[in-house]
Amino acid sequence: MTELDYYELLEISKDADKSTIKKAYRKLAMKFHPDKNPDDHEAEEKFKAVNEAYQVLSDEEKRSIYDRYGKAGLEGHGQGRGFGGGAGFDDLGSIFEEMFGSAFGGSGRQQQRKTYNYNLDIGLEEAVEFNEAVFGCKKEVKFKYKNACKPCKGTGAKDGKLGTCKTCAGQGQVHARQGFMTFAQTCPTCQGSGQSVAKKCTKCTGTGYEEIEDRFEVNIPEGVNNGNRIRISNKGNIAPDGTRGDLYIQILVKEDPHFIRHDDDIYYEVPLFFTQVALGGNITIPGLRGELELKIPAGTKDKEQFKFEGHGVKSVQGYGQGDLIVQVKIKYPKKLNDEQKELLEKLQESFGIESKPHESNFEGMFDKVKNWFK
Predict the structure, then answer these.
(1) End-to-end alpha-carbon separation of the chain, Å?
(2) In this predicted model, what pLDDT tens digit does every residue of 144-174 receive, in sequence order?
(3) Please, is 326 exposed, middle or buried when counting C-beta atoms within 10 Å of its C-beta (0-12, 13-18, 19+)?
(4) Residue 208 and residue 157: Cα distance in Å, rounded?
(5) Where are the domains of the chain?
(6) What residues in the chain have per-residue pLDDT under 70?
């Protein structure tokens, strides 16, 4: 990128005052910021140059040197290509705040602070059997919830009296700089409240709550699947003002040794002896809700699948019902006695040339390969 005069970069005159310089910088920094111009190398370079120009022209001493000697005169004064100086961080932080909200630099609008240090919603896991998930069931759930300590009103402080957090000076956020960027994050000491406990409450020993055991019966709906969540309203933790959160139950479905579930479809394997697939016929197989008849066409192939529509799992969202898919696995005898060998040999001979498809397939190939090595 061609080096431009700092005044030309900011599109201002050489007698521009600080207010004009700052206004021009903010406008161009917003325009060329990398997050607004992803994968645009030219915009990124322009953004760096604009920031460099502002760092110089917003500093009276550096601006005076630049006006007299140009960029060469700034060498040795902490100004090189890039973001060497500290000027401009506050302005850049406010620009990020305008673009992305208070997560970047600046304080932003004050968040509503809570005096208790726990979440109102509770999450727990509940394991169910394969069939319980398919057909639904009732489960007794045991859990603990938090209730705000009354003497300290959930603060954990004696008589509910809180002081200013020393880590963040009551702001609820701490700031860190990386390069030219300033990031804000929730204060790890006060968890964003801006307040800290001076003396611990004697009843709750500073936790701000008491834990209460509870149990109740919950209906697990038909068709629920692994990872689904069930929300139970007003069964969560309780805030000092009486507001209560919700309980979220995450379902863990145990595997079945035979049935395999994929969404609302059910799969399993049907072993068939080789004579069954050769002859064909009908067999009785188990379904989720009773026996089913499977018709096996003669010549059925290994891993061939047969579908029973609507015999799968009922959708928990009420979108119909899945299918049952059975896959054939052909079994062959591991050993043959003399009588069985004799019968199979006779059967093979009865098919004639059809029983030796490799001979017709290899016809002419032996001579062809021999010729390759002559």
Answers:
(1) 68
(2) 999 999 998 888 888 778 888 878 887 878 8
(3) buried
(4) 8
(5) 6-96, 260-331, 338-372
(6) 1-4, 75-114, 177-182, 353-364, 366, 368, 374
What is the pTM (predicted TM-score) of this model? Answer: 0.57
279 phi/psi in degrees, rounded to 5 = -85, -30
Neighbour tally for 232: CB within 10 Å: 15
Tell me the helices (H) and strands (E) count for the chain, helix number first: 10, 15
CA gap 300, 303 in Å, rounded: 9
Encoded tokens for 265: 């479809």
* DSSP string covering 321-366: B--EEEEEEEE--S---HHHHHHHHHHHHHHGGGG-HHHHHHTTHH
Return the CATH class of domain 6-96. mainly alpha
- Cβ-contact 210, 198 below 8 angstroms: no
Contacts of 308 (CB under 8 A, 6+ apart): 287, 292, 323, 324, 325, 326
pLDDT tens digits for range 306-340: 999 999 999 998 889 999 999 999 999 999 999 99
CA dihedral 130, 132, 135, 136 (to 10 degrees): -140
The third-level CATH classification (topology) of the domain covering 260-331 is HSP40/DNAj peptide-binding domain (2.60.260)
Q: pLDDT, tens digit, for every residue of 49-90?
A: 888 888 889 888 888 888 877 777 776 554 544 444 444 444
β-pairing verdict for 265-273 and 181-186? unpaired
Task: Count CB atoms within 10 A of the CB of residue 21.
Answer: 20
Indicate the burial class of 222 (C-beta count within 10 angstroms; 0-12, 13-18, 19 or more): middle
